[in-house]
Amino acid sequence: VFRIVRLASLEGSSHMNEDAVGTIPAAAWVIDGATPLDPPFELDGVTSAAWYAQRVSQELAANFMEDDCHVGEHFVRDAIRKAQTAIAKELKWTLQEDQYRPPSASMALANCVGNLVEVCTVGDVEVRVRLKSGETVRIAHHLEYKVVDTPGGETEWGAIDDLRDQRRAITDDGEGNSHVLSVRPLRSDALRYRSFLASEVASLLIYSDGVGAILNGDLDSYLDPSIDIVTALGEARKFLVDGQRVDDASLILAIPVA
């Protein structure tokens, strides 16, 4: 199981926090909802991105609580796939797809059962694992995955300048799948998975890209539980230039315990 040392989810410049964080005894996750680039709309009184992130969190909690003794890449992938599929069915009933582009989300999750810590990422939410040897391992799938760009073949999604084209490429690979959680099924290679012996893990940090932006990417020192990353995040926000756009910032610092 995990001992949660720090947890925060801070609203950015928009009027609503579109991140979600969740914990159960054996798992923790951060979800970063992405607003559709077409005219914004709401679901159940919140933005569609906030709704989507919250629903993913609820489904993950249900799936991992249901099978809280299971481990392995197949189980983790299946739990995430079940969450995505269930919410996709809800969205297809709710959305008029010719009018709205559906919301999407990136996520990162850590699962700790017995002497195994499992980490997975989808999109641009990341995890840093501090090993007791002193080594820090960064799991950040978005640095590697590519999308099809016509007519030039494959290109990194971040190299697509037009934001609408970029979002479209991320949520539709041209073959009916998505690189992030959305209405379309998640590509098999869109989820990055790593596992560690729990006895070798000192701590791990799960965080949305808003955290890295506010703290200028210097996050390794905050894997030390004695350093209060939540206070540091709040203080750093005070020095941002007035009018500067700030993304939602969410994090969980956890320690595996026997």
- State the end-to-end distance: 7 Å
Largest sheet: 5 strands, antiparallel
The computed structural class is: alpha+beta
* Computed Rg: 18 Å
Query: Residue-averaged pLDDT, rounded?
Result: 84
Estimated helix fraction: 25-40%
List SSEs in N-to-C order.
EEEEEHHEEEEEEHEEHHE
What is the total tally of β strands?
14
Question: Residue ranges: pLDDT <50 for 5 or more in a row?
Answer: none
Number of helices: 5
Query: What is the general shape?
Result: globular
- Residues in β-strands, percent: 25-35%
Largest sheet strand order: 1-14-13-8-9
Q: Can you lay out the helices and strands and say which pair or pack?
A:
Elements (H helix, E strand, L loop, with lengths): L1 E9 L8 E6 L2 E8 L7 E2 L2 E2 H19 L6 H22 L9 E10 L2 E7 L3 E6 L4 E4 L6 E4 L3 E4 L6 H9 L19 E7 L3 E7 L1 H6 L14 H10 L10 E8 L2
Antiparallel strand pairs: 1-14, 2-3, 3-6, 4-5, 6-7, 7-12, 8-9, 8-13, 10-11, 13-14
Q: What characteristics describe this protein?
A:
258 residues; alpha+beta; 5-stranded antiparallel β-sheet
Description:
There is one protein chain. By secondary structure, the chain is an alpha+beta fold. It has helices spanning 48-66, 73-94, 163-171, 209-214, 229-238; strands at 2-10, 19-24, 27-34, 42-43, 46-47, 104-113, 116-122, 126-131, 136-139, 146-149, 153-156, 191-197, 201-207, 249-256. Helix 1 (48-66) crosses helix 2 (73-94). 41% of the residues are buried. The mean pLDDT is 84.
